[in-house]
User: What shape does this take?
Amino acid sequence: MSFIQSIIIAIVEGITEFLPVSSTGHMILASTLMKIQENDFVKTFEIFIQLGAIMAIVMLYAKKFLQSFSIYVKLGIAFIPTAVVGYIAYDFIKGYLFNSIVVAVSLIVGGIVLVLIDQKLTTKKSKVEVVEDISYKNSFFIGLIQCFSMIPGVSRAAATIIGGVFNGLDKKQATEFSFLLAVPTMIAASGYDLLKTPISFTSHEVVLLATGFVVAFFTAWLAVKVFLKIVENYGFKYFGYYRILVGAIFLLFFKF
Assistant: This one.
C-alpha cells in the first residue's frame, strides 16, 4: 500500500463510516479498483482507521455520554445481539462474504429499503422527546437489526437507522442513536479484529497507520456534521439512490 493509497482509503472510511452506504463495502470496492493486494497489514490498516472515525463520534457526542448514564445501559443492550452473532459467525463472514459481488448486491438491496423507508419518514413522529429516552426493549431490537450489517455492503449505519425508524425514533433521532451505537460496536469489532490479525510493522507502515487514523478522524467529523443536515432537509432517499447506482455500476464492472 502506498502513501497516497492509504490517504484515499482513510478518506473513503471517514466519509462513509457513519453514512448509510457501507464503509466496509466502499473500502473493498476502492481497494479492488486501486488493485491493493490484500495482506495482514492492509487488513490491520482498514481496522485501525475505523478507530479514528470512532474518535470523531466520541468527541462530537461527548456531552451526551457524560450527561446520561442510562444511554450506556441502552447502548450496551443494543450491542449484545451484535456481540453474540458476531462472535459465532466471525469466521464464516470473513471467509465467505467479503467479496465485491456480495457488496454490490447488498448496496442495491439496502438502497431500495432506504428509499422505501424515506417515504414512511415524511409523516413519522417520534415516540420519545430525546434519543436518550428510547426504551430498553427498542434498544435491543435495534441491536438485532444491526446484526444484518455484518454482511459487507449492508452498512451498520443503514441497519441501525432503519432499526431506529421501526422502533419509534424519527429520522434525526435514529441517526443519532446509530452514531452512539457505533462507539461500542466498532471498538469491540475493531479490537477483536486486531487480536485475530498478526501485528508487526515497519517504520513505513507505522507512518501509514498514523496518517490513516488522523485523516479518517477529520473526514468523519466533517461527514457527520454534513450528514445530519442532509437528513434533516432531504431524508435518506438520495443515499438509497446512490447505493443502487454504485451497486449496479460495480455489478456491471465485475461482469464485463
In short: The chain has a mean pLDDT of 87.
